[in-house]
Amino acid sequence: MMQSKFPQRWGVKLFYSTLTRVDSNLEPYGDLAEDWSSNDTSDEWTFTLREATFHDGSPVTAADVKATFDTVYDEEVGSPGMGTMGDIQQVEAVDKRTVKFTLGTQNSDFHKLVSKGWGSIVPEDIVTDAEKRQALGTEEHGSGAFTLESFAPGDQLVGVAYDDYYRTGDDGESLPYIDRISQITIPEKSNQVNALRSGDIDIIWQPGYGQWGQLQSLDSVTAHRTPGGEIANFVMNVSVEPWSDPRVRQAVKHAIDREAILNAVQDGLGTIGQDSLLSPAYEYYSDIGAPERDLEKAKELLAEAGYPDGINLTEEFDLTLQTASNIPHMRGTAVLMQEQLKEAGIEFELETMSYDNWSATVWKKSPFYVGAYGMRISGANFMKLMLHSEGNWNGESDWSNEEFDEVVDKAIAETDVDQKQQYMQTAQKLVRDEGPYAISFYIDTIGASKNYVEKYNLNPLAYQIYPDEYALGSDAPTK
């Protein structure tokens, strides 16, 4: 229901509750749920809810949880969140405070997946009414730590503490620690740094990577950095030529200079990509090595595929690389890959547009683009979502590999850490060698805060932010 995904995604964390949360180590802890458990095969999960109220004073019940998940997974509603939290087959409100999920497949990470923003609990009467549901783009009906005071799209979003919020901090104090919070949209990254320096803002959620050195030099500021998993993926949909030929895809993988792209686009703040979705920040990441840049090998692969003189994708196959102009790592990756692939004899035109336009008209619709994904909570579930033949977002690439499907399904079900690692390593190698993506780098997650901001903990999942847990020290200025 959100018109602009980035500013409003942040607001969702202020106003709404999810069943669980994940900390900076990707370990789950309770939010709206005070307890949870699964059966031995991890395909049935039961959550017990805390006593909590929505901001209108009505109690949060299992019926609200059921209605929310049923709506997100309703094909007629068409939510992009459908399938992102596992293969949910049935949600049952056992009683007012107990909800049971029945899954179509085993999933040992399900208790983590429900912490996603798609799992934000909305009152049953709102989420099941199409007209009221549509209004969620500008209204809020949550049970989170803050209530909506004002919202000016593209400018500012303000929340104030909800007096009857149900959570307490580790110190036993009622949350939130702060009385009022504002999310201010400052498009120019250098202006964000200036606002932080002057004290007009207290935290930069996602600063520009070009400002990293400057942020480190500010005496009144703490610069935060941790390995992350955000990517810009060069998509080659295998249902169309020439991407249907794995040799052409492999030629692309050997034609790119990953380190040069990482340094130019991210100022080196990241790690080299292996064409798999998983970065070193994921629990089951394997260092399998990236394809080396070898222009001669790329040209040989093209020749074997029937293109001894190279290939012009736009002229011969009507393929134009599309990406978002206002997302720096998407646009930067597209521009540099266009330049580098030309050296191997692969040419194409480039088209840029706003992210919102790209999201509406290109994502999962075009066979050739540079996309972007933030880090996900579960690497195995992320790989299934994107690349499994039955994954909900497989339509981005239409790639299918029986061995990959098998090992990913086993990894999702497996509870033994060592065995799960073996399955995940096999899956990552298959994607690197045969998959539909070229992924040049994995982006570090960075942030910045004034020194008087306390309890701020940078999560590698940049979108997992919990401002109700932040506090201000005694030296913080009044505003």
TrEMBL record:
GO terms, biological process: peptide transport
GO CC list: ATP-binding cassette (ABC) transporter complex; periplasmic space
Superkingdom of source: Archaea
Keyword ATP-binding among UniProt keywords: no
Pfam families: SBP_bac_5
Every Solute-binding protein family domain range: 27-392
InterPro entries named among the record's database cross-references: Peptide/Ni-bd, SBP_5, SBP_5_dom
CDD domains in the cross-refs: PBP2_NikA_DppA_OppA_like_17
Any one GO molecular-function label of the UniProt entry: peptide transmembrane transporter activity
Keywords: Signal, Transport
Membership in a protein family: Belongs to the bacterial solute-binding protein 5 family.
Protein name according to UniProt: ABC-type transport system periplasmic substrate-binding protein
Annotated source species: Haloferax gibbonsii (strain ATCC 33959 / DSM 4427 / JCM 8863 / NBRC 102184 / NCIMB 2188 / Ma 2.38)
